[in-house]
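User: Design a sequence. Structure:
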C-alpha cells in the first residue's frame, strides 16, 4: 500500500484470533487476542483513510468556494454597475452612444479575445498563479479607471480590466474543478457558486445606483479595490496550487482571433453613427471576415489549435458553447438596454433605476439554488431547455406589452419570470460543459465556454446598441431589442434540446 506521502507501507496480515504472543511466546487469553485483532483492524482503517485523502471539511469547502467566487463577484459587480452608470458616464464625460458602448464593450472585447490564451496559460504555468495575476491586473486597472480624466483613459482602463478578468475567470473554474472532483458534490457547489455570483449581479444595479447617485461614477471602480485585495490574500492561504502542465500557446491563432473580434466590434459600434457604408466600417467588416477565415484555416492545419478541436467533436460540448454564446448575447444585451431604457425613456434617476432593475436580476440566485437542488434529478438538458424557453417567453411578452402606459409592476414581474429561467440556465450549461470536458481538459474547456459567452456579450451589447440607435431609443428601440433577445433565447433552447446528450 502507498501512503499519502508516497512512502511504501506494509500492513501485516490479519490472522484473526491469536492465542500466543508471537514476540515472547506467552499465552494470551481470548479477550486479549480479540483486542489485538481489533487494534490491527483500526490501524488498517486509519492507513486506508490517509491513503484516500478525505475531502475537506464543510467549513473549508465554504471558504474555498467563497475565495474562488470573489473574482467572479468583482467582475460581475463591475459589469452590472456599469449598466446603471452608463447614462451618467455619457453626461459627465460627454460620451457619444458609440463612446459609451466602447466603455462597456472595450472590457468585453479584451476579455473575450484573451480567454482562450488565458486557459492555455493556466494549463502551462498553473491555474492558481494565473488566477492571482489576473486579480492583481484587474484591481490595478480599477484604480486607473477611478482616476481616469477623460473617456479615452477610461476606455483604456476598461481594456486592461478585461485582460485581468480573462486571466482569472477560467482559472477559477479550473481550481473549482480540482477542489471538488466528485460529480454530485460538484453539482451542488456549482449551484451555490453560481448563486453567490448571481447575487452580486442582482445587487450590482442597486449598488451602482447608490454609488453613482451619492459618490459619483469614480466610486464604481473604487469598490473593486477591497474585493481584489481580499481575493489576493485569501487565495494564497486556502487554495491549493494545481500542477502546471506543458502546453503550447498558439500565438498566431490568438492574434487572428483578436483581430477578427476587434474589427467586428468596431463595425458594430461605429456603424450606426458613421453609416454602414462608410469606408472605415466596410474596411472593418472585411478585416473581420479575412481574419476569421485565416483563423479557421490556421485551426484546421495547426498542431496546437487555439480551440480544443477534439472536444468540439463531442456534441454536448459544442452545443453548450453555442448556448453560451446565445445566452450571453441575450442576457447582457438586454441588461444594457434596460439600464438605459429606465433612465432615458422612463426618467428614472441612477438610484431609482438600480432599484427598478432588482426584480430582473435578484431572482437569478433563486434559479441557481433550484438547479443545485434538482439539477441532477431532471438532467442538465431538460433543465437548460425548459429554463431557456421560459426566458424566451418572458421577453416575447415584453415585446408585446412595452408601451408608455405600461405600469412598472407589470414590467418587473415579466422581467423576474424571464430571468428566473436564466438562473437555472447558467449552472446547467456549465455542468454540461464540465461533464464533456472532464478534469483533464478543465482549463481549456472552461476558457472556451467563457470565451464564447463573452463573445456573445460583446456582440449582444454592440448589436443592441445598434438597434437602439437605429430605432431612436425610447420604447420602440427597447421593444425591438427585447424581440431580438427572445429570438436568441428561443434558438438556444432548440440547440439545447437537439444538441445535448441526455447523460450530460
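Assistant: Done.
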Amino acid at each position: 500500500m502507498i501512503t499519502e506521502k508516497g512512502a511504501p507501507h506494509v500492513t501485516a496480515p490479519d490472522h484473526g484470533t491469536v492465542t500466543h504472543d508471537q514476540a515472547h511466546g506467552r499465552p494470551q487469553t481470548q479477550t486479549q487476542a480479540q483486542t489485538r485483532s481489533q487494534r490491527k483492524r483500526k490501524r488498517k482503517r486509519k492507513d486506508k483513510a490517509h491513503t484516500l485523502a478525505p475531502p475537506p471539511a464543510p467549513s473549508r469547502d465554504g471558504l474555498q468556494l467563497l475565495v474562488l467566487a470573489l473574482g467572479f463577484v468583482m467582475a460581475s459587480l463591475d459589469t452590472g454597475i456599469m449598466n446603471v452608470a452608463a447614462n451618467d458616464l455619457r453626461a459627465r464625460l460627454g460620451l457619444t452612444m458609440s463612446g459609451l458602448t466602447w466603455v462597456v464593450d472595450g472590457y468585453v472585447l479584451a476579455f473575450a479575445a484573451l480567454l482562450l490564451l488565458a486557459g492555455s496559460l493556466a494549463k502551462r504555468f498553473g491555474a492558481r498563479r494565473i488566477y492571482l495575476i489576473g486579480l492583481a491586473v484587474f484591481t490595478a486597472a480599477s484604480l486607473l479607471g477611478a482616476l481616469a480624466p477623460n473617456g479615452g483613459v477610461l476606455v483604456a482602463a476598461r481594456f486592461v480590466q478585461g485582460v485581468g478578468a480573462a486571466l482569472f475567470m477560467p482559472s477559477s473554474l479550473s481550481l473549482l474543478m480540482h477542489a471538488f472532483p466528485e460529480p454530485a458534490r460538484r453539482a451542488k457547489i456549482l449551484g451555490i457558486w453560481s448563486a453567490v455570483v448571481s447575487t452580486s449581479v442582482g445587487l450590482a444595479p442597486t449598488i451602482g445606483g447608490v454609488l453613482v447617485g451619492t459618490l459619483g461614477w469614480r466610486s464604481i471602480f473604487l469598490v473593486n479595490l477591497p474585493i481584489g485585495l481580499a481575493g489576493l490574500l485569501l487565495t494564497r492561504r486556502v487554495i491549493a496550487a494545481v500542477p502546471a502542465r506543458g502546453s503550447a500557446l498558439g500565438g498566431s491563432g490568438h492574434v487572428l482571433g483578436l483581430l477578427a473580434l476587434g474589427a467586428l466590434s468596431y463595425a458594430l459600434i461605429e456603424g450606426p453613427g458613421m453609416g454602414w457604408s462608410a469606408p472605415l466600417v466596410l474596411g472593418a467588416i472585411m478585416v473581420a471576415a479575412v481574419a476569421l477565415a485565416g483563423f479557421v484555416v490556421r485551426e484546421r492545419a495547426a498542431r496546437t489549435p487555439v480551440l480544443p478541436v477534439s472536444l468540439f467533436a463531442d456534441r454536448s460540448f459544442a452545443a453548450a458553447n453555442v448556448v453560451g454564446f446565445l445566452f450571453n448575447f441575450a442576457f447582457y444585451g438586454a441588461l444594457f438596454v434596460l439600464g438605459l431604457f429606465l433612465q432615458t425613456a422612463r426618467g428614472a434617476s441612477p438610484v431609482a433605476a438600480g432599484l427598478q432593475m432588482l426584480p430582473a436580476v435578484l431572482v437569478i440566485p433563486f434559479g441557481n439554488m433550484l438547479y443545485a437542488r434538482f439539477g441532477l434529478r431532471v438532467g442538465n438538458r431538460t433543465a437548460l431547455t425548459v429554463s431557456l424557453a421560459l426566458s424566451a417567453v418572458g421577453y416575447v411578452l415584453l415585446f408585446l406589452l412595452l408601451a408608455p402606459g405600461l405600469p412598472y409592476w407589470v414590467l418587473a414581474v415579466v422581467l423576474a419570470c424571464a430571468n428566473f429561467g436564466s438562473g437555472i440556465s447558467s449552472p446547467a450549461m456549465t455542468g454540461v460543459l464540465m461533464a464533456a470536458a472532464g478534469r483533464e481538459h478543465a482549463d481549456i474547456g472552461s476558457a472556451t465556454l467563457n470565451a464564447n459567452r463573452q463573445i456573445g456579450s460583446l456582440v449582444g451589447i454592440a448589436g443592441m446598441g445598434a438597434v437602439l440607435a437605429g430605432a431612436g431609443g425610447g420604447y420602440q428601440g427597447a421593444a425591438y431589442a427585447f424581440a431580438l433577445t427572445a429570438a436568441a433565447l428561443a434558438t438556444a433552447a432548440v440547440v439545447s434540446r437537439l444538441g445535448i446528450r441526455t447523460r450530460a
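The CA atoms of residues 333 and 464 lie 6 Å apart. The first helix runs from residue 30 to 52.
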